[in-house]
Structure formats: structure tokens, C-alpha cells
Amino acid sequence: VLIAANVGLSLIAFNNPVLLSKLMLTPYDVGHRKQWYRVLSHAFIHGDYIHLFFNMYVLYSFGGLIEDIFTVPEYFNMLFPDLEFWGVSRGYLYFVLLYFGGILAASLPSLKKHADNPGYNSLGASGAVSAVVMALIFLLPTMSLQFIFIPINIPAFIMGVAYLAYEYYMSKKGRTGIAHDAHYWGAIYGLVLLLVLQPLFAKYFILNVGSFIGLI
User: Do 135 and 191 contact (CB within 8 A), yes or no?
Assistant: First the structure.
């Protein structure tokens, strides 16, 4: 449903510049004109086909696994045998909190930093997707990940640390034309939400990573 909404609205906006402008995150309009809907709507439109493809490819790849962990009792119990499954309905609710909370968390830095800048705009689902990606890395830290078109297996926890470090550095550097702060805070939100939902996930993360590198 999320992918369909992103693709459908993005394709419509590609051919409608007026609609695109009305849906983008413009902190000035949010604060001064009370157009709060932009905080949500900007995450369902994209700048071009490549932007849309990469976000949806990552959401499909990682989101499906997160959905299984959250909503399939057998999968959850296999990964976390000492924890009680929270239920299918709550699992879907938690997925919604993860995705839409990621949108909000990714938007807050821009809303504060560019509150009085009418020329600043941003768009895309990257903040929400970052929350999904980092949540999966936290739950499955030793799974192998690869960059697209680069067939080299990298442990997920190493990829996660590198991603956070890169996005933090680029957000401080600025002037890249990319909202790296949205990526960073969306990812941080994904980690925090999981710890709030189930603090014992941290124990499994430590045990899995420690066993992988030979410390446990």
C-alpha cells in the first residue's frame, strides 16, 4: 500500500508542477501559513524517477522483512525466542508508527532550521525509508547486505554504522542538495522506536554482534 501510494502520487506530481509545489515540505509555509499537511505529503512525492525507484526498491527490500518480523508469530519467535510476540494487530500498528514516525522525525530538523526560509523545499520518502532500514539492521545485525550493483557482502551492523556516520557528516557539511539530516534522524528514530517497543531487542543485538565478531 505504501509503495503504491508513493508511486501513484509521485507519477501524478511529475506531470503537475503546481501540485508538486503544494505537496513539498516547505517549512516556511508550515510555520507561517499553517500548512501542516506538508509534513506528511512531501514523503509521498519524489524529485524524479531515479529518486522514486531507489526509495521504493529499498522500502520493498527492507520493509517486507520488517513486516514479517512484526506480524508473523513464527518468524518473531524464531528470532527472539525469549520474548512474547506482541500480536498481529499491534505488529501492523508498530509498522505504521515506524514508517510515519520516521517521516515526522526526519522533518523536524528542517522545520526548525528553515522555519524562516521561504526558498527551502524538500521531498521524498527517504526519512521513513531510513527508519525502516535502520530498524531491520538493529533486529538482524549480522545479515549480509550489498550496495546495488556491487556484489560484496557487508554485515548489516557495519553498514548501519557507516550509514549513520556518513549521513551525520554530510548533514554537517551541508550544501549538497540532499536532506542528509532527514536521513540521519529518520534512522535514529527507527532505532529509538524499537528500544521503546521492546528494550530487550538491545540484548539480542549485542549477543548477535558479539557472537559474530567472536567476543561471545
Answer: yes
